[in-house]
Amino acid sequence: MSGELLSDKPVPHPARRGYTVSYKGKTLLSTIDPISQSERIAAGISKRDRTLYFCPSPLFGYGLDTLLSHITKDSAILCVETDKQLFDLSLKEQILNNSNIAFTGISDSAELCRFVREKWGARVFRRIEQVKLTGGWQLDSNYQLMAESLQKDIALDWGNAMTLVKLGRRFIRNVIRNLSLYDKADKANKANKARPVTELQFGSKPVLVLGAGPSLDQVLDSFMEKGLFAIEKNQRPFVLICVDTCLSLLRERNIIPDLTIILESQFWNLHDFAGSGNTQIPVAADFSAYPGSLTVLNGPLFFFFTPWTPLRLFDRIKAAGFLPPVLPPLGSVSLSAVELAKRYGSGPVICAGIDFSFTLDSQHARSSPSRLDALLIQNRFSSPFNPEAVFRNGVFTVLSKSNSPVKSDPAMRNYRDLFEREFSDPRIKDIRGSGLPLGLETLDINDAYIILTASNSTQDQTIDAGGKEQSKINIRLADFIKHEKTQLEKLRSILSGEVIQNDTTVLDQLLDDADYLWAHFPDCAGTEGRRPAANDITFLKRIRAELDPFIKIWDLAEREAER
């Protein structure tokens, strides 16, 4: 069969010799023994476990049987055909007669990643390998992009799993501690009562969002020369939002932000708040942020929630009325700040200091904690410059928005790419500086100043000390915490042998409900709730080791809620 268009007549199958299958000027199958050639290609692939074999344009499925017999049991084959005529021609019945094969006509990389996740689940595969059994892969350059996207998606799953292994226990401990901050309605100081972030309303005012990148120094200095921050805080025609790392350099310039954003789950970001204690600056924090950081400023507290893994505990917290509004998992405090500005305001959003890059002598703006630390340890033998950070593996040179060479690394570049995907909104603009291009309209200082001072309104925002009352909840926080603690005590009594439980369904139910005990285990992290069986002694021993510390955390949260 030959020609520019595929005939709608039946194609002899199987075809050994003499049949030429060409389409759009490309030969799709060998003119001599196409089946044997496809089988040789399939037999020559590397045999590795947990591999997803990506087969673009499989046509009649030649070689798939050989490939199936060659791969390991925990691997699978993904066949993709983006051309509609070829898709209709493909012998889908033959291709789909095995559960380890999937066939689809999806042409979008993001949708294909979702398809793979829905078909086989998360963290099933470790790698992607392309297997070109026919010449159909030449017809669509997107096949290569699909393979790369699948590989990135798999790498992201494993990267998230490693983060969960390292920090998952810390995340959930912080959530349990932060629960007690919701029960401030009966306390004298209602300003510190935690409230949902939906109560933030910026109205139509412009919002200036500050990251702590090296370019922030020049931006702030230029704005100060123009007198932008000489305006009293409650009379500003714009809203000033900063990440927590900016607090020290704003304080040095006598600038008080309207809101600061906190994401860090570990204690070391307390350094960011040195000198800013009791300044009553409002805080918007992730529900898993370090509890000690949330009350340092002693201002209004607003919670949002970034789910890091599905947990039944979150469902129960939501049913009890305590789960904050959900924000997408952006991974960077700067991205979360921009998301809040975009979501809770209708005016323009101006970004500054969100660089995702650094220079030879600076990774953050002046007076940021890391810069101050470097200066404090400077002596004859210690330079304030950090060559290890600049010349480590993976760091590369790239041109900034202002066409000056700066340094970046793959992690920062991924955040930049995520920023561009999430915030391609004409309302969001960036100020020219030494940071990476963000895919936004870039403004100079004068244009940014005009936008920020154009609003005549000074009263169309809501970030106050009193705030609105929370919606009434159906269950007291102390009762919720006590119930959770009781369930863990019941599980401990079974695993310790104090209570003999012959009904295995009870143990299974307790383990499923207390999924936060094992969600960070290396074999469970990122698997969307898959765990070993309840008769796995090693697994139960690990659960037993987690119980006492978590019971103590619930007990501490109960005492804090009752103060």
- Total of domains: 3
Radius of gyration: 29 Å
Shape: globular
**Span of the ends, CA to CA:** 82 Å
* Number of E strands: 17
Placed side by side, the strands forming the largest sheet appear as 7-12-11-10-9-8-13-16-17
Q: How would you characterize the largest beta sheet?
A: 9 strands, parallel
Helix content: 25-40%
Instruction: Tally the helices.
Output: 18
Q: Stretches where pLDDT falls below 50 for ≥5 residues? A: 1-12, 184-191, 465-474
Could you please describe the fold and organization of this structure?
It is built from 18 helices and 17 strands. Residues 1-12, 184-191 and 465-474 have low confidence and may be disordered. The protein is α/β, with parallel strands linked by helices. It folds into 3 domains: 44-140, Rossmann fold (3-Layer(aba) Sandwich); 184-452, no CATH class; 476-562, no CATH class. Helix 1 (34-43) runs parallel beside helix 2 (64-70) and helix 16 runs antiparallel to helix 18.
Give the helix/strand layout.
Elements: E1 22-23, E2 26-27, H1 34-43, E3 51-56, H2 64-70, E4 76-80, H3 84-89, H4 92-95, E5 101-104, H5 109-120, E6 127-130, H6 142-179, E7 194-196, E8 207-210, H7 216-225, E9 239-243, H8 247-252, E10 259-262, E11 283-286, H9 291-294, E12 301-304, H10 312-320, H11 333-343, E13 349-352, H12 369-376, H13 387-390, E14 396-399, E15 405-408, H14 410-422, E16 428-431, E17 441-443, H15 445-452, H16 477-495, H17 504-513, H18 537-562
Parallel strand pairs: 3-4, 3-6, 4-5, 7-12, 8-9, 8-13, 9-10, 10-11, 11-12, 13-16, 16-17
Antiparallel strand pairs: 1-2, 14-15
Helix pairs in contact: 1-2, 5-6, 6-18, 16-18
